Give the backbone structure.
Amino acid sequence: MPCVKSQFYSRTKHLLLSAYGSRWRKVHLAMFTVHIDDSGTDPNQPVAIATALIVPAARIVSLDREWKALTEKEGFPDFHMSECVASNKDSHFAHWGDDKKRRVISRVRQIGKKFGSQAISLAVHKADYDEVVPDELREFSGRFHYTWAIRNMIGQLDKWAKFKNVTLPFEYIYDWMDPKAQREAKAEIDTVMAQAEHLAAQAGLAGRYTNYSFRRRQDIPALQCNDALAWTCYQYAQLAHLQTPLSDIAKDCWDDYFNHPGDEWLYAATMTRAQLEDWVRREQEQGLPDFDRFRDWYAQHPKPKRKKSR
């Protein structure tokens, strides 16, 4: 009998097949998959941040294979950075010793760096945003702080694509948002993507922002890799804005990501109050071209009126 070589079936690929069905072939044409973590949705968090890990579509199966080997070797079903660092008592990290935590976190970083082509993170201090950005601008820049971060992160992704001569659209995978508890937050991200697609269509690039979905981190290994990266960038943003010292683990992670052998593999920026004030001043004085086009989008998509309570 002929020998049939077994093929590792990537869970990520399976989920995309389930999500897109007959459209899978079109989605699979995307050369890169962008895994996005949008932190700062918790009102108690002082910083909002959006972090993206760009992975070539052709390497996702290999990433998933190495991730599977890691989870089987170390004995955990899925990875959550904050729970791991804190040894959360209700998690499978509760009884991990420091040696195991550092070993697994290091391997998570290695996998993310090995398969990720680029990492991008943008942060904003919520108090600065609330005090500096007037209501009339928030209508377009984002009512939620992290919406502003995601909108600007997409701009950085486009700059990277242009620099790398990437012409095909990305596949965007956002970390899961509860459709009930986080309905408004998810709706704002949907709006950001729809507006980006509207601008792309005007430029003759229709279809550039239509391939996106919200997926549970537990099911997508690359989202779990990005969770560690996003946590690290969040710690550094708190250092920048609040002078909160980095823990030893956070410092090790930051140094490891930032000193990636690839040239400027991690682009991490946090918007200062002065930069926000300058942006608001320029918009109020002369206006930015994109916002005129956003106004056109809102004219075509009026917000539904809220029903009066009886």
Notes: Strands lie at 32-39, 47-56, 118-125, 171-175, 212-215, 266-271. The two ends are 74 Å apart (CA to CA). Confidence is low (pLDDT under 50) at residues 1-9, 306-310. The chain has 13 helices and six strands.
